[in-house]
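Form P-L/3: holo structure prediction, ligand adenosine-5'-triphosphate.
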Amino acid sequence: MTAPGLQVQGELWLDRAPLIRNLRLDFPAGQWSCLLGPSGVGKSTLGRLIAGLAGPFQLQGHCRASDAVPLSGRVAMMAQDGQLLPWASVLHNVTIGARLRGQVPDMARARSLLAELGLDAMAHRRPGTLSGGQRQRVALARTLIEDCPIVVLDEPFSALDAATRLAMQDLAARMLATRTVVLITHDPLEAVRLADKAWLLSPDGACALDLPETVPPRSYRDDATLAMQARLLARLHGMQPA
Ligand SMILES: Nc1ncnc2c1ncn2[C@@H]1O[C@H](COP(=O)(O)OP(=O)(O)OP(=O)(O)O)[C@@H](O)[C@H]1O
Ligand SMILES: [Mg+2]
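OUTPUT (holo model):
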């Protein structure tokens, strides 16, 4: 599978008012791009736009793939709130995409993903009986099983403890190595560890951020990673919530 790059240009509007002006974003093919910015600036809205989801937002401009093929059906999104079906088992939640399309779900793949994410013992539990971090991993499994060339992850690791977060970051980096990934995150270390490219969003547009020259996923012990994390944190600290 060859993953295309993505370009988003124009003005993002919400409820007939501009949310982010002057967007000139590019997400390189087969790489991880991070979106950072204050709460409420429009990161999730932008993610939903890329994923082709409906909402009270619109782009005055264009969002297109570098191969000029329509994006429809080629983007999987893990939503910020996970959006699991409360009445369905973990296994059913992970395989819901295939069921909705009238396909036979790949149960072996679902079980193998759950095992990789440390959830093999929970396949038959309901989401309401899981911890927040476990539910987040179920939502990640449901996104990974879609096997799409473009993947939007909206704060996918925010509910995880530090050690599990590092492990899941490495696992996602490995599993999505050839995909074009848009990772929305509030965590500067996560961005610096995983990003090939990083963008800081404000109502006035997107600004490309410096990253270490090394190849992600970067070690959290690395001096360059830690130095960049501190610089990014200072920059975010200077921004007001939207
Ligand atoms: N369905 C909706 N209807 C109306 N306004 C919305 C809707 N969803 C989000 N908004 C508003 O759009 C703006 C951007 O929200 P969005 O969720 O994209 O922000 P965000 O950058 O992802 O924030 P956070 O970091 O807190 O997740 C906010 O002011 C929010 O209140
Ligand atoms: Mg959000």
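COMMENT: Residues 94 and 142 are 4 Å apart (CA to CA).
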